[in-house]
Design goal:
Order of helices and strands: EEEHEEEEHEHEHEHEHEHEHEHE
Oligomer: single chain
Helix content: 25-40%
Number of strands: 15
Length: 322
Amino acid sequence: MRAVRIAEHGGPEVLRTTEVAEPETGPNDLLVDTTACGVNFIDTYQRSGKYSVSLPHVPGSEGAGTVAAVGSGVTGFAVGDRVAWAMSPGSYAERAAVPADKAVKLPAALDSRTAAAAMLQGLTAHYLISSTHVVGPGTVALVHAAAGGMGLLLTQWITRRGGTVIGTVSTREKEQLAREAGADEIIRYTEREVAEGVREATGGRGVHVVYDGVGADTFEASLACLRPRGTLALFGAASGPVPPFDPQRLNSAGSLFLTRPTLAHHMLDRAELDWRTGELFDVISRGELNIRIGGDYELDEASRAHEDLEGRRTTGKLLLKP
């Protein structure tokens, strides 16, 4: 089968499409014909060596497709089922071996392409607003990169739960997308200082929570935007890791909370995965959460997809089509 493989760490050019053997499956795995797979920043971290992976490596943490074979120990799935998954490596390929405990069946109303675009970022958005900081009426949130795939999902979901979103973007075009998703206020960080804009928008009070997937470039501003006892949810590091800092700063800034969550720790068992995917699929199926797909790429174009993602030239979710 064809797959994108990394033989050495480096830039997007190390992503090469090649013929490889089909993935080995165990008794608790599904063999899935991949319809589409998502492109995420974690893929770029693994490619560059920021995150350690064994080489050679087939990247891709999420996807959707049709079950081609079922392991002897698997129950609840059958050949022909349409499924999606997240946090399972090897999705940049025509076939993927997926642990059954990471896979979920797709409802008839949800197409596989949308599911592939929704899994990792949709489940991340769910835990961020349902577990990390519970969002409800009256919550005021700052969402960085509000026109990106994660930003658009967070903005839509927060506003539908009665919260207020202040979003940061770089361009007028991205501002329009974020406003269409429901953002109440937009700060173009290329034109004004973010903390100043947030203080003005909130009458000097600050926000209850900052959702920050950018990291180094936004960390200081994120802290400065919080009201007392506010929460900084640092869920990614697109601009690089945050340098070490003195925790005493959280005290002096207002008894702030800082957390570095990850999806793997929010789908620890089947019940939690089913809860999160059930609510995610429900809001998508009801038309309350629009999954914006910002680009479709062939497997041979994986390097270009990474270049576009890292260059912040995209909005919404990027997909590869095996």
